[in-house]
């Protein structure tokens, strides 16, 4: 309601409440390279479009006279209590978007009590982001590097800095065919920005023979590229992760029910149904279309989260109705960060949560757990 009250006076929200408008505004304020990095997707963008279209094929059926005066959007996911079933997805090198990058996002997340998932490819260190996040809830996302010692170092640093759950991204052991980044020479662009989280790591520094300086920066970047992902990993390697992480682990990038079952068999606590926002396999199945069969396959043996294509509160409600316990969003808050720093990220979170709450109560629903397939029809 505070958003409506602001609108009644002279004070208008600094950013539009229709979050789909943020992309156009960000395009005007960011460089072509920075905008291309966020908005871009794999190949022709077919999967990114399919992610959005999948939401249009489901419609919510509102129910009346159900006493919705008291509502509670809070959920607990992988041991973390959160005010609503929404998390901030991992997004790498955020200083491309705003000088404060992940620090601004960490402060916004803490102010709203919303968990952030810090990317391995962050532009601030694990420790600096933890400090900015303070008492806020935070998870760590691992891009599993070739060098196992480096992987262990990341996990130990994250644990020591208070990240409670681990998200292991499986769909990006190499960057996909992303025409916008290729055309705009993304890696040379990144050279000027660096990947501080790697550069600050003692194991990384040992591998390149000392701290990163102007003199060895190119070599450091090449070492990063060579080590970024490990294409030879198999399901058996997950034992190694279990041995080095005490808290809950969720696998991100799952699109097939058999992979979800294997995750359960490997003792994983959660799976994140995601196609990386359409940034990896062009022509891949829409993430929302993969969700229901995965929920069926996993039943209650693991927590199912969802991302790729969430833009509105109604989208969140649909993903929950199809069985996700919570959702993650990426591009909307990345644009919020670009346009308004910490306040921009908070604006996005507040809009999304407010619209989710309104959608739910107007549909006769007071708790996320009440959302089910009975709430939806096929369009
Ligand atoms: C991402 N994503 C991502 N995922 C991850 O596991 N580690 C990362 O470092 C990044 N980096 C990243 C950068 C940018 C600019 C984007 C847009 C995305 C993927 C992200 O976590 C998420 O899976 C999707 O982006 C979700 O789709 P939407 O919300 O962007 O449609």
TrEMBL record:
Glyoxylate binds at residues 37, 143, 178, 252, 276, 279. Residues 11-379 form the FMN hydroxy acid dehydrogenase domain. Its EC number is 1.1.2.3. This is L-lactate dehydrogenase (Cytochrome). Its cofactor is FMN. Pfam families: FMN_dh (PF01070). Keywords: Flavoprotein, FMN, Oxidoreductase. It is an enzyme of class 1 (oxidoreductase). It comes from Actinomadura livida. FMN binds at residues 90-92, 119, 141, 169, 274, 307-311. PROSITE patterns: FMN_HYDROXY_ACID_DH_1, FMN_HYDROXY_ACID_DH_2. InterPro entries: Aldolase_TIM, Alpha-hydoxy_acid_DH_FMN, FMN-dep_DH, FMN_HAD, FMN_hydac_DH_AS, LMO_FMN. Signal peptide: none annotated. Belongs to the FMN-dependent alpha-hydroxy acid dehydrogenase family. The active site is at residue 276. One of its GO terms (molecular function) is FMN binding.
């Amino acid at each position: 309601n505070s958003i409506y009250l602001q609108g009644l006076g002279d004070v208008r929200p600094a950013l539009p409440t229709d979050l789909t408008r943020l992309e156009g505004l960000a395009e005007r304020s960011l460089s072509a390279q920075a905008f291309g990095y966020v908005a871009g997707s794999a190949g022709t963008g077919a999967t990114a479009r399919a992610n959005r279209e999948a939401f249009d094929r489901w419609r919510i059926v509102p129910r009346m006279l159900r006493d919705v005066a008291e509502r509670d959007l809070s959920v607990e996911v992988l041991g973390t209590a959160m005010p609503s079933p929404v998390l901030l997805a991992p997004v790498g090198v955020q200083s491309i978007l705003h000088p404060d990058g992940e620090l601004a996002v960490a402060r916004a997340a803490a102010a709203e009590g919303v968990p952030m998932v810090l990317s391995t490819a962050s532009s601030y260190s694990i420790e600096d982001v933890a400090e900015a996040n303070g008492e806020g809830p935070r998870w760590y996302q691992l891009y599993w590097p070739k060098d196992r010692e480096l992987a262990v170092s990341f996990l130990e640093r994250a644990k020591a800095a208070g990240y409670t759950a681990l998200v292991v991204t499986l769909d990006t052991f190499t960057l996909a065919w992303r025409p916008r980044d290729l055309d705009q020479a993304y890696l040379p662009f990144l050279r000027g920005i660096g990947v501080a989280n790697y550069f600050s790591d003692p194991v990384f520094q040992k591998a390149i023979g000392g701290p990163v300086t102007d003199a060895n920066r190119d070599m450091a970047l090449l070492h990063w590229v060579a080590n970024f992902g490990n294409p030879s990993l198999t399901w058996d390697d997950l034992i190694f992760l279990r041995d080095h992480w005490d808290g809950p682990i969720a696998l991100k990038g799952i699109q097939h029910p058999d992979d979800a079952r294997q995750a359960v068999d490997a003792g994983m606590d959660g799976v994140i149904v995601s196609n990386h926002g359409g940034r990896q396999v062009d022509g891949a199945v829409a993430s929302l279309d993969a969700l229901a069969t995965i929920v069926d396959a996993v039943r209650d043996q693991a927590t199912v989260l969802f991302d790729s294509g969430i833009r509105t509160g109604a989208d969140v409600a649909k993903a929950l109705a199809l069985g996700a316990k919570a959702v993650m969003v990426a591009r909307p808050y990345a644009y919020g960060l670009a346009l308004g720093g910490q306040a921009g990220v908070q604006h996005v979170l507040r809009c999304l949560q407010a619209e989710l709450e309104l959608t739910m109560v107007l549909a006769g629903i007071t708790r996320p757990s009440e959302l089910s397939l009975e709430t939806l029809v096929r369009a």
